Amino acid sequence: CDDDNSEPGDGCSSSCTVECGFDCGLFQPSECTSICGDGIQASDEKCDDGNDSNDDGCDSACFIEAGYTCSTPDCALSVCGTVCGDGYRAGVEGCDDGNLESGDGCSSSCEVETGCGYTCTGGTPTTGDACASSCGDGYLAPDETCDDGNNNDGDGCSSICSIEQGWECSTPACD
Fold first, then answer.
1. How far apart are CA 56 and CA 68, in angstroms?
2. Contact 138, 132 (CB under 8 A)
3. Do residues 93 and 83 lie in contact, with contact meaning Cβ atoms separated by under 8 Å?
4. For residues 84 and 82, what is the distance between their CA atoms, to the nearest angstrom?
5. Longest pairwise C-alpha distance within the chain
6. Half-sphere exposure of residue 127, counting CA atoms within 13 Å on the CB side?
7. How far apart are CA 57 and CA 83, in angstroms?
8. 48 with 21: CB under 8 angstroms?
9. Please, what sign has the CA dihedral across residues 40, 44, 47, 49?
10. CA atoms lying within 13 Å on the CB side of residue 43
């Protein structure tokens, strides 16, 4: 290659060799372009995972997608994965509430804690989840003092899952 320029990162190195991830064609002076999706991260690409698919961490324009991080060894395929606890539900995450604490509906491994009666909604690659327990489902969540499986008042456990005056409840804690 020969591009009449010795700027690193433009596809043609100062020693006139084609830089990693670029195609400089056959004409002189060379016009070097990177090829997004070829599996080789060129200097003008943020990632290159070898395809032109979106929603896998590295988008079709070779930019890192929200909720992902990508690492790329020199002149090699980018490996992208989600970041649990960053507040963005992406990829295979069941939820992401912006922390790594279990017991709040979304576990430290970004799975919905359904065994505690939680549901999580609203999470996208650009937004976090809101997780809430369901009073009356029979699971004692950390924000409830009782849960008898219904929403009736007057049976010891109120419709808002708090122990009613004069009653004792022994709902086992969720796991």
1. 8
2. no
3. no
4. 6
5. 91
6. 8
7. 11
8. yes
9. negative
10. 12
Q: Is 121 left (phi over 0), alpha (psi -120 to 50) or beta?
A: beta
Q: What is the pTM of this model?
A: 0.61
Q: Over range 162-173, report the average pLDDT.
A: 85
Nearest to 56 by CA among 111, 129, 128, 125: 125
Distance CA 167, CA 165 (A): 6
- What are the tokens at 103? 């017991």
Tokens for 65, please give them.
């997608």
Residue listed under structure tokens 């017991």: 103
How far is it, in rounded angstroms, from Cα 60 to Cα 97?
Answer: 27
pLDDT tens figures, 86-135: 999 988 899 999 999 988 889 999 999 887 778 899 988 888 999 988 88
| Gap between the Cα atoms of 31 and 26, Å rounded | 9
3-state secondary structure of 54: coil
Q: With beta carbons less than 8 A apart as the criterion, state whether 118 and 134 touch.
A: yes
pLDDT tens for 12-58 read 666 667 666 676 766 666 677 788 898 888 877 899 999 989 989 99
